[in-house]
Amino acid sequence: MSTPEQLYEGKAKILYRTEDPEILLAHFKDDATAFNAQKRGEIAGKGDINCAITAHLFRQLEAAGIPTHFIEQVGATEMRVQALKILPLEVVVRNIAAGSLCQQTGLKLGTPLSQPLVEFYYKNDALGDPLLTRDRLFLLELATPDQVEQLTHLALQINQLLSQFFGQCGITLVDFKLEFGLDREQRLRLADEISPDTCRLWNQTESDPDLRVMDKDRFRRDLGNVEVAYQQVLERVLAQAMQ
Question: For the SAICAR synthetase/ADE2 N-terminal domain, which residue ranges apply (predicted)?
Fold first, then answer.
């Protein structure tokens, strides 16, 4: 069997070509990065955990009518996905003030937002993935006005579905990052992953600000027990998915 041709390697995944040009193989890595890759490390078992969580959540979203690139999980760290033209945007949805929102606005960590906040960031490592106004987004021709409206609508739908699901897992969805791409019919589909790498997740039964963290902030902030937190998220997701 020939070695698949590598198409792209990112911070957390490698994409390989398959015999079908419309289908790619996504391999989830144990590599961990933070602060625009200024901090690097490895989280043991992260690839397995994030692949499994993403597969389960994408199935949940597909069942609720959200179009995604997910086809099937074919290994512990691998899934088959539909090839898309990825938009150079990160769509961030925030429910509670944390991270850069606190740093840039002065809001206190943990402040509930009156309504979900949808933000767009330019997916460009050289520029540090800057926050965009809609006018700047259109100036750079990163998406059309119609696509931005669709992205906002999809992001809010996904937020409602994920917030409910994680809530049933005893986890608060603080904020999360999404990526989207266009298929052959120019239809927007959710891409990338949904995992503790791309979400802020807080344990609802823990009040301590550090102990409640169940996501990559444990790596960013050197809180320790990163692997344990990721595994706990997986176990709760799997348990809830089986109900």
Answer: 6-236
